[in-house]
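Chapter summary example: a protein plus glutamic acid.
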Amino acid sequence: MIITRFAPSPSGYLHLGHAYSALLAYHTSQQQGGRFILRIEDIDIGRCRTEFDHAIREDLAWLGIHWQEPVRRQSEHLDDYAAGLERLTAMGLLYPCFCTRKEIIREAARANQAPHGPEGVLYPGTCRTRTDAERKQRIDASEPHALRLNMKQAVDLVAESLTWTDAEQGTIIADPLSFGDVILARKEAPTSYHLSVSLDDHLQGITHVIRGVDLFGSTHVHRLLQALLNLSTPTYHHHKLLNDEEGKRYAKRHKALTLRALRESGVTAEEIVQRVGLVDLMND
Ligand code: GLU
């Protein structure tokens, strides 16, 4: 059975771009007699607010979307992410990173080559070679640290070419190496987007991940984590992003185009479906 999900972060109100993604995931599941899951991705405690979580549910219900209860809120499942980190630690693939953002940029510039990966400046590996004694001493002194994946070692360990199936682009060969040593647990949160999303999609039995093409790149890393942690690999559909009249992508800064602002100005849920161009899908 097909299981899809919509996984917003409650750091703002939903806009038309979210409506497109949520409706596409919901109706894809409904058309095939499957299930739809809402997941609240609230590990970024500095930016996420309960008020937005409530607003998201209200807006989705208004759009006619129904989801299974209980809704998984990532902040309530930190144990699952800790278990994933423990497994990776036991495999010798994680190391503590004490660097600040400034230090990373400075170090990358000093090396006179600030190579960029898909997520910005590539981590220059400063903390990768620290001794166990230094790591222990700095951790014992409560120095804030993130946990990074030793990407080269991880890729070597998997030792096979990884692929995934993408609805629009076909078979994709995963290239996680180009991301460098990604962070799997942040200084401010005991997990990361890459880790929690990969574990949750597996734990919730998601068969089809439907999300914006802006997250296409992340799938290279998710596919590697699936191989390392023995998680299932869903089918992916990275859909186009909707643009406003000026051709700019909808974003949280478009206050007037939040679903609630549109609703308050008298726009109906049916009009939203028309506006995001999904009428055909809904009438199938
Ligand atoms: N929580 C992510 C976001 O709001 C989406 C995660 C995903 O669909 O994989 O951008």
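Key point: The first helix runs from residue 16 to 31.
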